[in-house]
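<backbone_tokenisation>
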Amino acid sequence: FGWLIARTKGVDLLKSGSGNIGASNVGRILGAKWYALTLACDITKGALPTLMALRMTGSDTMAVIIGMVAVLGHCFSVFLRFRGGKAVATTLGVLLICQPIAAATSLAAWIIAMAVWRYASLASIFAAAALITFEAVMPGAMAVRSAFIVLGVITIIRHRSNVTRLLRHEEPKYTFGTSRANQG
């Protein structure tokens, strides 16, 4: 969705900002309004198929499998030559349907880390770590918990270039863009 939204504004996200199609890059380049729209669409991208699978099958395991497919499609889009987002918002959408308490825990970790450090990537890594920790210690179906642990690991792996920039003190703190001057 980020790629489509940015294209309507004449921006190719794959060549702008961080080169990522997610809400953070959209927000840096186009501003808060487009960040919010992209975030809502990416959350829905995970939540809607997960909810449909849950309603159609009644199976938490099937719902999380369908949700994982949505997340993997977001990360490795066939329409963008297997490039894509970093799994954060789409995973949140799956979590909201399958495990709202885990979603709230991960979201709280993201908000706290973002408020303290102002690095969207670091906040996303904290949220993924919170998800992994939550799933490792809470009771529940092993298949569902394992799937969310895998999604948390995928999110962290997708942020490996951000980790490198953080370690080099080259990662930009998050600010919303208001013009295309932020594309570089």
